[in-house]
Amino acid sequence: MTPPGLELLQGTLNVLVLRALSWHPMHGYAVARFIRNGSGERFRILDGALYTALHRMEELGWVESSWGQSDKGKRAKFYVITTAGRRALRAETERWNVYVTAVHGVMRAKPEPA
Amino acid sequence: VKHPRWHRTFRLPWPTPERDVDEELAFHFGERTEALIASGLTEAAATRQAEAEFGNRDSIRRTLVEINERAARRFRRGTQIEQLRQDVHLAFRLFRRSPAFFVAAVLTLAIGIGANGAVFSILRSTLLQPLPYRNPDELVLLRPTPANGVPWESVRLAGPLPLTAQTILGWHRNGTERIGEFAALMIHNVPNQFDLDVGDGMTRLAGGLVTPNFFTLLGAHAARGRLFSNADEATAEALIVLSDALWRRDFHGDPSIVGRSITLAMGDPRERRTLTVAGILPPSFHFTYPDETEAWVLMRWSDVAQYNPQLLGFSAIARLRPGLPLAEARRRAAEEELPIAEEKARDRSADRLVVGLVPMHDWVIGDTRASLELLGAVAALLLLITCITVSNGLLARVSERQQELAVRATLGAGRGRLVRQLLTEGALLSIGGAVAGTMLAVALQPVLRSLLPPSIPRVGEIAVNGGIVAFGAAMATVTTVLAAVVPAWGGTRSDAARLLAGASAASSSRSALRWRHGLVGAQAAIATALLISASLLLTSFWELGRVPLGFDGRKVLTVELRLLDTKYALPGAKARFEDELVTRVRAIPGIADVGITSAVPFRVGDRLVQIHRPGGEKMDFVRERRVDPGYFRALHVAPIRGRLLDYTDRDVTTPVTVISESYARLAFGGDDPVGQKVGAREVVGVVADLRYASLEQDPTPSIYVPEAQAQQAGMVFSIVARAEASASAVSLVPAIRRVIRDIDPALPAMNFTTVDQLVDASVANRRFYTVATVSFATIALLLTVVGLIVIVARVVTERRRELAIRAALGATMSTLARVATRDALIAVGVGVAIGVAGAYAGSAVFAQFLFHVAPRSPTAYSSVALLVLGVATLAAWGPIRRFDRVSLAILLRRE
Q1: In this complex, do B27 and A77 lie within 8 Å of one another by their Cβ atoms?
Q2: Using CA of residue B788, residue B793, residue B795, residue B796, what is the dihedral sign?
Q3: A71 and chain B: CB distance < 8 Å anywhere?
């Protein structure tokens, strides 16, 4: 992703990755492509951070990995979201929505008369 | 994106984290570079951009590898714990399903572990635990030994054979640096029994005189006050150190006694001495086993010089120079490094004497070492047989769980997993057995201690402590391995492999049965070997009971008296005392006969004298015993020839003697000794040989001289008093004690006991290990029988259809029984043969425990073999009897 771009808020990368995997199992490159395309290449995310996030979440039990074949027939490591991962995704999405609503609400509010 | 095909097979085993990460990153860079090239970049630019987009590749790679390694470790641990949890859970479920098996297995192991724990606690305190001194391995006892290397008697009986004052002083003067420091002491003899006035009478203390360096050489420290040191050589104060036991008993544990003076009557003849208490020893201090010395009096080197140089009676211990090997020290000692002064007293041996070095531990343990080791070996065999029993039980359950195991095998449980399951079961049983066994050992310990013969040294150091718990844990490990790994290996090899290959349960269980038959055979082998040992020991014990004592010790009470007071040294004083004593004791109602002797049978104390063989140059060693005429009557000894001693044999009449049968044979051959001369005495009679100290030793030639004619008036003697048939010997003790107190209130009467008890005590050690071996062998036989019954029952169950069909076709019950028990009985037969061979092979070592029975006695071997085979046959028929013809017919119809 081409720097400079938008800095990602803390923890958001996990949500994006889980969201990508919630569609179907993907290898790491496919996740990166999903986020890049989905954001219109506006986020400033290093691919290395993405892999770190994947492996950390695997350690947490949110995703599982196994070796499979890519659509081009190459050996690739695929990640699949686990039940715990879906639960985490739901919770994070909920939090994100509350956050956005709150920020949105403040941005649109007018001061009450003193 | 197309849905990928899953290859779960690559998940396990976990690939190395590094390779995994590298491969993943390589895929990423390949894909990204390709995509960038497709969008119009050059290859070099695409590679650069992909790198830039990624970040610090090396550091991220390291992070990823770390995460993966951590995860892999946790995964491995997690699955292991999970498997263990499953195994334990399953094992408990199985135990709950058949609690009888669980209880039986735990109890069986508890017997084995308990017996071993109890035996271990004895062995630990006696053989294994180092003596309570600093570097005890360096300590040796210096003991005169014939230069030809043949010791006179066993180490224990000989004790610290004495050295003369002259020898001790010689060593002290010339130094013993080439061997190590030495200390001298006088213990275990009459002058070193101290009389202490404790208010309500005199107590006699076991005392010792020691040189100033004795305690520092041992490395002992005082619990209170101080012990002796080399600095005391230059002082003049008389010092004494008390043992913890004495201090608590007679000084009521009063700490202020240190530094105060106490008065003791000591020496021969008695004199009163006032000594200052220098200190109290800690309770852990022991030196003379089994009867601990209670009071240690300082003997300066200058005091040693005051003794008659020829006086025998000193012992010596030494601490070898650090690092000096015992063999080298022995060589140096023998090479006149420790010369023994030429002494008159030594001419009883034709050989030159040298100093032999006996390690302290050997001296303390003495002759009991072999019997303790025997006990350990027997207990270990018992443990082995209990393990085999449990092993067989576990295997039986494997066969019964064919269905379950088959299912698990088809579900992918490999052999390793099944072995682990069995191992878990075995470990749980072993832990249960170890806990129960340790409790059993702890509970048994007081019983065992009371059974232990007092002759076993260091019995007082036997204690329940952490050691026995640690031993229990070690036993649990051993039994797990023996009881579970073996069946797991053998029992599942066939089972798992065949089950995986889809073989029928019946055929796989048959090969497991072969294993189990093998185990029954092994049990039979151990039981046979143990029973042969037990039978030989029992025969020895029985033979020992048949040894003619030469006297009748039943109802004969004995009391030891020591006339050490100076007043008895006056002419005729001792004779007057003895006359009055005998007259008054005889007058006690219930006394049949009373006599006086210098040494009671089975309590050593005879003088060893050398006598010229009549009509020859040769000298014979003979035990000389001073007795009065009442002695023979009290012990029911009748003359074989001539007459016994008589009250008319006085100091003014002809010196006479009665000789023992063996001396008559030695000195006079076939001639009639009566009327002939032995030394200056005329032989008036011959009596049967009386055993001296042990039933196992052949009687030594002995002569009896009248107390009234004794040249050396010994001040130590014993009363032997026979109770009338209607009275009990023990009930006479108070009356005799009263008589003695009436005659001389200051005279301590010691060692009240019956002669019977003395004889009995002499076989206590043998009785202990015989009883232990016989009981362990019996348990072994019982366990073998149980194992046999269980396996035959299994065979009957498995082959019930075949048996039913045979019965329907008209086979007799005995034919059926033969079919069902054949394998088991063959296994037992082979086991018995192996057991017999094993006992035969070990008979050379075992011979030392036997008495008047050949270690390869064909009677013992064949009767035990027949016993085991007979019991096995009877036991094997047990499960068959459950089936009669009718029940077999019903069975056939049902199946």
Answers
A1: yes
A2: positive
A3: yes
Asked if A48 is an interface residue toward chain B (Cβ–Cβ < 8 A), one would say yes
Report d(CA B106, CA B439) in Å as an integer: 13
In the three-class reduction of DSSP (H, G, I as helix; E, B as strand; rest coil), residue B671 is classed as coil
Report strand pairing: B202-210 vs B180-187: antiparallel
Among candidate residues B576, B560, B483, the one with its CA nearest the CA of residue B523 = B483
Burial B181-204 (b: 16+ CB within 10 A, else e): bbbbbbbbbeebbbbbeeeeebbb
Report angle CA B140, B146, B149 to the nearest 5 degrees: 75
> Is there a contact between B692 and B601 (Cβ–Cβ < 8 Å)?
yes
What beta strand segments (E) does B604-746 contain?
A: 607-612, 619-627, 639-642, 656-660, 677-678, 681-687, 702-706, 716-723
Rounded (10°) CA dihedral B33, B37, B41, B43: 60
- B20–A contact, CB cutoff 8 A: yes
Cβ atoms of residues B631 and B719 within 8 Å: no
Mean pLDDT of B845-874: 91
- Which 8-state DSSP code applies to residue A25? -
Q: Provide the mean pLDDT of chain B.
A: 82
In A, which residues are within 8 Å of B78 by CB distance?
A: none
Question: With contacts defined as CB-CB under 8 Å, which chain B residues touch A55?
Answer: 63-64, 67-68
B-chain residues near A56 (CB < 8 A): 67
Residue A1 at interface with chain B, using a CB cutoff of 8 Å: yes
Q: How far apart are CA B805 and CA B817, in angstroms?
A: 14
Put simply, whether A25 touches B (Cβ < 8 Å) is: yes
Low-confidence residues in chain A, pLDDT < 50: 1-3
CA pair distance B216, B237, nearest whole angstrom: 19
pLDDT tens digits for range B461-493? 666 666 767 777 787 777 777 777 766 665 555
Partner B contacted by A39 (CB < 8 A)? no
Nearest CA-CA distance, residue B69 and chain A, Å:
10
Q: DSSP for B155-191?
A: HHHH-S--EEHHHHHHHHHH--TTTEEEEEEEESSGG
Helices (H), B548-689: 573-586, 629-634, 661-668
pLDDT digits (tens, 9 = 90+) for B382-407: 888 888 888 887 777 766 666 666 67
Kindly report, residue by residue over B715-751, the tens digit of the pLDDT. 778 999 999 988 888 888 889 988 988 898 878 777 7
Cα–Cα distance for residue pair B377/A96, rounded to 1 Å: 76
The verdict on a CB contact (< 8 Å) between A76 and B24 is yes
Q: Do B64 and A47 touch (CB under 8 A)?
A: no
Query: CB-CB: which of A26, A32, A66 is closest to B8?
Result: A66
Residues of A in contact with B71 (CB under 8 A): 58-59
Amino acid symbol at B719: I
- What is the β-pairing status of strands B681-687 and B639-642? antiparallel
User: Is B57 within 8 Å of A52 when comparing Cβ atoms?
Assistant: no
Question: And the tokens for B93?
Answer: 């479920």
Please judge whether A32 and B28 are an interchain contact, meaning their C-beta atoms are less than 8 angstroms apart: yes
Whether A37 contacts chain B with CB within 8 A: no
Query: Measured between beta carbons, which residues in chain B are less than 8 angstroms from residue A30?
Result: 1
Is A58 within 8 Å of chain B by CB? yes
For A60, B9, B137, B251, the CA distances from A68, given in Å and listed in that order, are 22, 10, 70, 90
Give the count of alpha carbons within 13 A of B326, CB side only: 13
Longest dimension (CA), chain A: 68
Per the DSSP assignment, residues forming a β-bridge with B597 are: B627, B718
CB–CB contact A48 B54 (8 Å)? yes
Put simply, the answer to whether A68 touches B23 (Cβ < 8 Å) is: no
Instruction: Please give the single-letter amino acid code of residue B892.
Output: L
